[in-house]
Amino acid sequence: MKKLLISACALAFIGYGLSENIGTQAANAQTGTLVLVANGEDFIRQGFVSKDGWQIDFDHAYVTLNQVKAYSTEPAFDPAGETPLEPKQTVALITQAKTIDLAEGEENAEPIMVTQTGAPVGAYNALSWKVVPAQAGSAQGNSIVLAGTASKNEQKIDFVIGFNQELDYTCGEYVGEDRKGIVQAGNMAQVETTFHFDHIFGDNSLPTEDALNQESIGFEPLASLAQNGQLKVNQTDLEQKLDQENYAKLQQALSGLGHVGEGHCRS
Amino acid sequence: MTNQQNLKYLAFFLLFSSLGFSRQVFAHGANIVYQYKQAIEVKATYDDGTPMSKAQVVIYAPDNPAIPWQKGTTDEEGKFSFIPSSDVSGNWDIKIRQSGHGDIISIPWQTDQPTSVVESQENISNLADSTYTPMQKIVMAASGVWGFVGTALFFSRQKSPS
Hints:
CATH topology of the largest domain in chain B: Immunoglobulin-like
Largest interface: A-B, 36 and 34 residues
CATH class of the largest domain in chain B: Mainly Beta
Number of domains of chain A: 1
Largest sheet of chain B: 4 strands, antiparallel
Strand order of the largest sheet of chain B: 6-5-8-9
Number of strands of chain B: 9
Strand content of chain A: 35-45%
Shape of chain A: elongated
Oligomer: heterodimer
Largest sheet of chain A: 10 strands, mixed
Shape of chain B: elongated
Structural class of chain A: alpha+beta
Order of helices and strands of chain A: HEHEEEEEEEEEEEEHHHEHHEE
C-alpha cells in the first residue's frame, strides 16, 4: 500500500515538472532582440540654419538617458490623449544612466546604437525614457550639452551650452520611413529615441509663421550672451540672462525635444 | 516638429452580398461585375485643420505587422480608403506621413463572424494566455496526486468475503 502511494506521488510530480519544462522551452523559443538607438537627426549630424539665420554646426551633442523602457500595448498608446500607458509587455532597455554623443560619426551616419537586450516576440509600440543630469564624464552635471560653432555674416561663436533640466518622455509608436519595434522570433528590431533640436533654434527652411519657428528662441538671444566669440553657459546662466519670454520658450522646447521618429511624446 | 497630425478614422462603408450579371458571352467581349464591400476611410489633417493631401499612406495587416500590406497616397482632402482582407481580424495599422510630419493609427477590424462567436474566442484566448499562481499550481498538483492515490486504493482494495 505504502509503495503504491509513493509511486503515485512520484509519477504526479514528474508529470507536472515535465509540463512546466515544456512550457518554459516554448516561451524561450519566442524571443528576439530589441535594439535601442538614439538619433539627433540631420540637424545634429549635418548642422542647419536657425530661424534667425545662424549656421549651427555641432561637435558634440551629449544626452544622458536613463530608465528607457519599451512597451507592447493594445490598444495603441496615444501620447496626445490622457489615457495612461497600460502595457501588456514591458522590456527595460536602460536601468543606469548612460551618456551618448548624438553628433558621433559622419554626416550620414546611422543613429547611435545605445544598447540591446532579449525581448519576447511582439510589437513594441510605445517607449518611455528620461534625460537626466550625468554623474560623470563630458556632460557631468547636465542632462544635455550642445557644443559647436555658430556663424552668421562675419560673426563666429564657439558655444558650449549645458541644460540640467530633467526630462521625462512617454511616447507612442515610432513613425518614419520604416516600421520599428516589431520583434519576431530570433530576429532584431529597433526602437528609437529621437531628438528634434530644431525646436530650440527654429528652422530657416520653414516660414517665419510656422509654429516651430514661432515657438523656438532661435540663436540670436544666445549669441547676445557671447563674449569674444565664446559662449559657455549652463541653464542657471540662461535663466538669469535670457528674458522671461525666451527662457519660458526654451523650457517648453526642451519638453518637446523628445520624439520617436516623427511620432510625438507626452512629457 | 510641432505640428501634430490628426488621423481621423471617418467611417465604415457598409457591405452586402455580391451581385453579378448574367449576360451573353462573346469571344472578345468585356465583362464587368460588381459587389459591395466593407471599407475603411481615414482622413489626415495637420493641427490647424489643413488636409494632408498627397501624403504617403502605408497600411499594415494584423497578421504581418512588419511588412506593408498596401501603400498609397491621400487625396486632396487628406482622405484614403481601403478594404481590409475579409478573413483577417485584428488591429489594422495605418501610417500617414508628409514632409517630416506623420502619425500612425490602429483601427480594430473584425471579419463577418457573429459578435457572440468572437467574444467567445477572446475569452478562450485570454484563458490560454493567463499564468497560474503558485497556489493554483499546488492545488493542481495535489489534485493529480489524489487522483493517483484514489486509483491505487481502488485497485488495492480487499475483496469482501461473499
